[in-house]
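Exercise 7b. Backbone tokens:
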């Protein structure tokens, strides 16, 4: 099975009117990837500041200490989002700007996001904050981080403070970004902060992250009239690498941890039984009521879509005994991620069929290429094609009845791409990290023309 459009396929014609009225059009960013200003406004150290200081942790030895200097340049960046013609903007709130040792929320941190939100509203951008996009306060890591159940309660206190302050102007809230990455990259592969490598810890972390989502939702609803609340998951279409029964079974196991491990408990089905049986002692310790809390109804599912995976049975490879197999001859971004627009349609249809969330927002989708500035322009035709084809795939899913209500391109700006540092550019806007100059790429110009309702 393939999720690829033929590489040579002509770009489909698209019009903004092909999408439902009231659709949220935006770009997505996150705090640690763009803000910089790590020592300003009373911000405490984050696990990413600490992780970046580890030799070899970040491909180019960099950190998010300056990043896009958005902490100082946000008015200009919000102008860019407005000039693109977007009507919504997804960003994240840095918990280390709000956290203090004594527990009283840091007023300077709240003031910063207060101004940022007002800046969005002044520009006609509906704010879509994410409350946790991976930057845990380092002092909480020292008390056990997400592996400690107390962090769940620290999170709901933080959510309470933020939503009390911003809830009169912000109606949409995303609790977590990609719990899979927090858990697996942060605590099993160790390629993300805090850089741990233990399967049981990773699953316990994941349980606490999901629980903190579940307990945060009622807090948000109490503080925000008519709040719309959701969680953003990174989900992947998966298919067997061959027609063998072994690969089909391996694919089911891989799907169990990649997708069902999140979708099932959020939908009130608990953790998948087949996976609990497989994981045995590694499964998270849960307390009575946890799974009910996690199953709290939400208003939308945030879907971050990047690539599909092909899976083979791999004896000896961890408890899952699975392996991701790179498919030959497929189109890839500079990151090596398979370009598969049809995978987005397929994934949305599956989610709709099997889980039926009330609404879906594509909270991230985008591509990384080795962009070059030539005569004051960035001719990123591959990124433009990626965007066009994924939007067309989205249209197909909507036509098939999937209630998709928004699309946020990753990302507004080139930024600090975690363990890859500044070597991976995903922006619709090019950032020169020496001068901090911003330059709209051709893909950004395409998005602007599309959002203006031009025939593109
Ligand atoms: C996602 C992350 C986002 C960005 C993109 C490329 O997994 O949520 O911060 O790094 O990948």
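Sequence design result:
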């Amino acid at each position: 099975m393939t999720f690829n459009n033929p590489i040579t396929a002509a770009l489909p014609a698209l019009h903004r009117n092909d999408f439902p009225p009231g659709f949220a059009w935006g770009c997505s960013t996150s705090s640690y990837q763009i803000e910089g200003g790590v020592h300003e406004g009373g911000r405490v150290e984050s696990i990413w500041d600490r992780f970046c200081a580890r030799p070899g942790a970040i491909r180019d030895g960099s950190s998010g200490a300056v990043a896009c200097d958005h902490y100082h340049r946000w008015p200009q960046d919000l102008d860019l989002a407005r000039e693109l013609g977007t009507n919504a903007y997804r960003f994240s709130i840095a918990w280390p700007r709000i956290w203090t040792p004594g527990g009283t929320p840091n007023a300077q941190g709240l003031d910063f996001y207060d101004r940022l939100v007002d800046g969005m509203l002044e520009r006609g951008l509906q704010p879509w904050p994410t409350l946790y996009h991976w930057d845990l306060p380092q002092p909480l890591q020292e008390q056990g981080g997400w592996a400690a159940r107390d962090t769940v309660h620290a999170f709901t206190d933080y959510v309470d403070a933020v939503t009390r302050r911003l809830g009169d102007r912000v109606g949409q809230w995303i609790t977590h970004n990609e719990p899979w990455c927090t858990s697996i990259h942060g605590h099993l592969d160790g390629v993300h902060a805090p850089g741990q490598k233990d399967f049981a810890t990773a699953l316990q972390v994941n349980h606490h992250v999901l629980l903190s989502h579940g307990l945060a939702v009622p807090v948000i609803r109490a503080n925000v009239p008519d709040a719309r609340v959701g969680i953003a998951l990174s989900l992947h279409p998966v298919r067997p690498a061959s027609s063998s029964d072994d690969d089909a079974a391996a694919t089911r196991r891989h799907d169990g941890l990649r997708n069902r491990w999140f979708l099932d408990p959020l939908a009130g089905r608990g953790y998948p039984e087949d996976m609990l049986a497989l994981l045995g002692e590694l499964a998270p310790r849960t307390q009575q009521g946890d799974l009910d809390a996690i199953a709290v109804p939400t208003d939308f599912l945030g879907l971050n879509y990047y690539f599909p995976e092909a899976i083979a049975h791999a004896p000896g490879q961890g408890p899952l005994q699975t392996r991701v197999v790179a498919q030959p001859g497929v189109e890839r971004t500079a990151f090596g991620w398979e370009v598969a627009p049809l995978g987005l349609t397929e994934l949305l249809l599956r989610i709709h069929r099997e889980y039926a969330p009330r609404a879906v927002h594509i909270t991230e989708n985008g591509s990384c290429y080795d962009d070059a500035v030539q005569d004051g322009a960035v001719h990123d035709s591959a990124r433009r094609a990626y965007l066009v084809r994924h939007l067309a795939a989205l249209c197909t899913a909507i036509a098939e009845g999937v209630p998709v209500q928004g699309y946020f391109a990753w990302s507004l700006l080139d930024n600090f791409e975690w363990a890859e540092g500044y070597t991976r550019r995903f922006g619709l806007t090019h950032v020169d990290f020496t001068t901090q100059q911003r330059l709209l790429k051709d893909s950004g110009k395409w998005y602007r023309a599309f959002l203006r309702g031009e025939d593109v």
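Instructor comment: The radius of gyration is 21 Å. The pocket of beta-D-fucopyranose is lined by residues 30, 33, 177-178, 181, 234, 304, 364, 410, 417-418, 426 (CB under 6 Å).
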